Amino acid sequence: MVLDALIIGAGHNGLVTASYLARAGMKVAVLEKNDWIGGAAVSRELYPGFTYSNCSYVSSLFRPEIMRDLELSRYGLQILPYEGGAVFTRDGGYLGMFRDHDANRREFARFSARDAEAYDRYSRDVMQHCRFIRPLLMRTPPDPARFRPRDLAELAWIGRKVMDLPEAQIAGMIRFWTMSISDFLDEYFENPVIKGYLAVSAIIGTALGPMSPGSAYVLLHHYMGDVDGNVGAWGFARGGMGAITRALTRSLEAAGGEVRTGKAVKRVLVRQGRAIGVETEDGEQIHAARVISNMDAKRTFLRHVDEAELPAQFVRQVRRFKTRGSSGKLNIALDAAPKFTALPEGAPNLRGDLHFTDSVERMERAYDDWKSGHFSRDPFQDVMIPTMIDPTMTPPGKHFMSCFVQYAPPKIAGKDWTDADRDAFGATCIDQIETYAPGFKSLILHAEIRTPRELEAEVGLTEGNIFQGELTFDQLLFNRPVPGYAQYRAPIRDLWISGSSTHPGGGVMGAPGRNAAAEILRDARIGHQMSDAYAVI
After folding, report:
1. Are 451 and 463 in contact (CB under 8 A)?
2. What residue spans of 86-166 are helical by DSSP H?
3. For 450-460, what is each residue's pLDDT tens digit?
4. How far apart are CA 296 and CA 135, in angstroms?
5. What does the alpha-carbon distance between residue 85 and residue 256 come to, in Å, rounded to a whole number?
6. Closest CA to 67 of 204, 235, 295, 206
7. Residue 488, SS3?
8. In 3-state terms, what secondary structure has residue 369?
9. 461 near 40, Cβ under 8 Å?
10. Average pLDDT value over all residues in the chain
C-alpha cells in the first residue's frame, strides 16, 4: 500500500508533522535510522539505572498549542519548572537567580543597586520584543519575491503589526535584531557578573560570541518559550527529554501512524520531478504520495537527493547555508550530589542552571578559541542536575548531571576530531567543575563526552549544529533555509522539509513541524480535493 506521507527522521519536529497528518486522516509512517526514537530530544540509559538526556536537556520552547492539539499530557508528558540558578565568581562568590522577579532584583542589588533598578526596564523591553515575535512562530513566512495573494496578505499582516508599534519601539526592535548582546546589555547594566549571566542565552548553540552582531536575537529566541504560561521560564521533562518524543509517538500511534526504527534512508526516489518515496540503506523501497524530511537542509538536499533533480542555484544556496557547530555536551552519572563551595547547603539555585563564566569578556575569550579552531580552554558550561527535581532518572541518592558546553568547533585545527581530542575536551570541562566543587571527580561513575563529531554521527546534525542552521538574521523568516523555499516546500514536487532548518528555527519547539503539516494539509486539500478533516490545523 502506498502511504499518504512518509517522514524521514523521528526527531520531535518529524513526529509533530506525522501526528498532525495522521490526525487528519492520512496514512503515515516515520522512518528513523537509529534503534531509538527522539533525534536530539531523547532519553537513554547509558549507565545502569541512569537515564540521560544526552542531547537536548531543558524544555521551554515547545509550543503549548501543540501540546494541547496532540494531547501530550494524556500521553505522559509533564514539564517540571526549575527553581533558579547561579553563576559562580572567581573570587569564591556567586550571583543567584530565582523564579521570582523581585527575588532576582534583590539579588542584583547585592552586586549593583543601579542594576537592580535597571532589571525591570530590561525585562519589560525584552518582553516587548517577545510579544512581537511570538505570533510569527506558528505562521508560514511570506515569500516577498512572489506576488501571490496569500504572500501579499501575510506581508500586509506583518506590516500592520509593525505600524501598530510606537516609532521608538520600531527603531529599538531593528537595532535589537542586529546588535550584539554585549552592546545591548551595556545599555542597562554595569556589573560584569550580571551581564555575564544574562548573556548566556545569546550564545547557546550559536557560532557567535557575545560581542558578535546578531547575538542579541539569539537571546530573544530562547526567551520566547514558556512553562505553564510563564513566559521565559524553563523546566525539565519528567523522565528526561525523551518524554517529549515518547508522548508524540504515542499520540501518533493513537491516530493510526507508525514509527519504524533502524531504517536509515539512502535516497529520496524522484520520478519526473516528483518525490515518490525513499530507498533505505538495506535496499527497501517505500512509496508514498509525499515525502517529508525532518533532516536539516544540507543533509536532505546534498546527501539524500540526486543533485541533478535540483535547480543549480538552489544547490548553491543550500551549500552556503551556515551550519557551523559550536557546542559539545557531557552527560555524567554521579554517586552523590556535588557540593559547590560558594552555595549554602540546600540552596534552591542547585535546582536550575549553574555557570562558571562570570563576565562577557571571559565568554568572548572562550569564543576566540573556537575561531582559532580549538575547543575553549576556559569553556562556558550550562550545568544542570535535573535529578534535584526529577528523581525518576537515577537510583535513590544518585544524580545525573548535564553539561552543555560552548565552544567546540566542527573540526580541530581543520582536522576531524580524534578520540584523544574528545577526551581532552571532556577533561577540560570536568577540571573546571572541580575548581568550583572540590571532590567532584571522585563522584563520577560514568561520563559520556559528545563533540560535534558525535552529534553529527548519531543525531544527524550537520557539523554538530544543534539548531540545524545558525539563527543569524540572514537565516530567519523567509530566508530560512534559503530564499524562495522558506514555506517547507522543496523544488521537487511532493518533497517537503519540516526540521529546525526551516522557520522559526531550532530548539525543542515543534513549530517547524506543525507549520510544515499545515502547509502539507493545505496543499492536499486544494490540490487533491481532500475532506474537511484537514481543518484540524
Report:
1. no
2. 101-111, 113-133, 149-163
3. 999 999 999 99
4. 24
5. 42
6. 235
7. coil
8. helix
9. yes
10. 93
The phi, psi pair for 451, rounded to 5°, reads: -105, 180
Residue type at position 199: A
Q: What does the chain come to in residues?
A: 537
* Interatomic CA distance for residues 407 and 451, integer angstroms: 10
| Confidence tier at 231 by pLDDT (50, 70, 90) | low
Whole-number Å distance between alpha carbons of 122 and 335:
40
Please state, in angstroms and rounded to a whole number, the distance separating the CA atoms of residues 112 and 125: 20
C-alpha grid cell, residue 436:
568550583
> Which residues have C-beta within 8 Å of that of residue 482, sequence separation ≥ 6?
297, 314, 317, 318, 321
Q: Which three cell numbers stand for residue 447?
A: 561520563
Q: What is the pLDDT of residue 60?
A: 81
3-state secondary structure of 265: strand
Q: Which residue has the cell 551556515?
A: 322
Q: Which residues contact 394 (CB under 8 A, 6 or more apart)?
A: 49, 50, 51, 333, 387, 400
Burial 301-339 (b: 16+ CB within 10 A, else e): bbebbeeebbeeebbebbeebebbbbbbbbbbbbeebbe
Sequence-distant (6+) residues with CB within 8 A of 235 are 58, 59, 60, 79, 80, 81, 82, 227
Mean pLDDT of 362-391: 97
Say how far apart CA 243 and CA 241 lie, in whole Å.
Answer: 5
Instruction: Give me the pLDDT at residue 234, please.
Output: 83
* pLDDT tops 70 at residue 151: yes
Q: Which residues contact 33 (CB under 8 A, 6 or more apart)?
A: 9, 262, 263, 264, 265, 281, 460
CA distances from 533 to 17, 57, 242 (A): 16, 35, 30
Cβ burial 507-533 (10 Å sphere, 16+ → b, else e): bbbbbbbbbbbbbbbebbbeeeebeee
Residue whose cell numbers read 559520556: 448
Secondary structure (3-state) at 509: coil
CB 514 within 8 A of CB 17: yes
Share of the chain above pLDDT 90, in %: 83
User: What span, in angstroms and rounded, lies between the C-alpha atoms of 293 and 488?
Assistant: 10
Summarize pLDDT for 125-146 with one digit per residue, the tens: 998 888 888 899 999 999 988 8
Which three cell numbers, joined as nine digits, stand for 230? 510563564
Q: Among 454, 471, 476, 472, which residue's Cα sits nearest to residue 463?
A: 454
| Nearest-angstrom CA–CA distance, 276 and 144 | 30
Domains of the chain: 5-38+64-77+240-321+467-536 (3.50.50.60), 102-222 (no CATH)
